[in-house]
UniProtKB/TrEMBL annotation:
Pfam families: ABC2_membrane. This is Transport permease protein. It comes from the Bacteria. Belongs to the ABC-2 integral membrane protein family. It is a multi-pass membrane protein. The chain crosses the membrane at residues 20-44, 64-86, 107-133, 139-163, 175-194, 252-270. PROSITE patterns: ABC_TM2.
Amino acid sequence: MEGIIAIWQRDLIKFLRDRARLFGSFTMPILFLLIFGGGLSGTMESMMVENIGVDSNEFNYIEFVFPGIVAMTLLMTAVFSAMSVIEDKNYGYMKEILVSPISRVSIAIGKMAGAATVSTIQGVLLFALIPLLGLSYDLFSLIQVIPFMFLFGAALSGVGLLFASVISSTQGFQLIVNILVLPMIFLSGALFPINNMPGWLDVIVKLNPVTYGVDVMKKIMIDVEKLSASIQETMGLNITVFGRQVTVFEEILFIVGFTIVIIALATFSFKRANA
């Protein structure tokens, strides 16, 4: 535990001291919020009013997309935090850790815990935009979603760690991760509904762990029960697998299982790459 805490503490201190990284990590989420929230909100709300007769005051597209923006922030921050592993290799810090009595498992867990903490902090900081956007989320719901954000960040940081363990350059890591991250964002329901995808694409959507993370965050932050069935169906708030609707509890179990598997894979890959 001392080794895990030391690695976690180091990554957290590095984050708090790097103001440019803190500022830069908000750029893309805010741009997406402005582009999709501001650009599509009128179109989506008009479509809901004209096609299914929803009252214009009943549906707010920005309220629908905001949890997806927070999830996107978690994804980008958690995955790219693993790039510090490559930097540690290049500067020799990783060798110092590897010759210490800390196990490879502890190193992997410490890095994932640090990335999960950093991504959760950045996700929570986005909550400051809620009053500026005129949104109304229940305070208790925002508090409830924070532990899941940490779990989600841990799962996603494991993906980054898995790639960082076998890639030797930061440029290569950024290229490969960008190729992976963007499809995970666009095929998760974070920015637009995913309930009318082609069959082959729907399979990818259902295998994407970000899909379930986004859905959990939306259902915790948005009072889904107050929305009509037509709104829920149109906005894809009810994910079905093999014709059966997936519950929030099952989605959380999936994320937990994915986290355990990705920790095992990242640790195994880390052992082989640094043997």
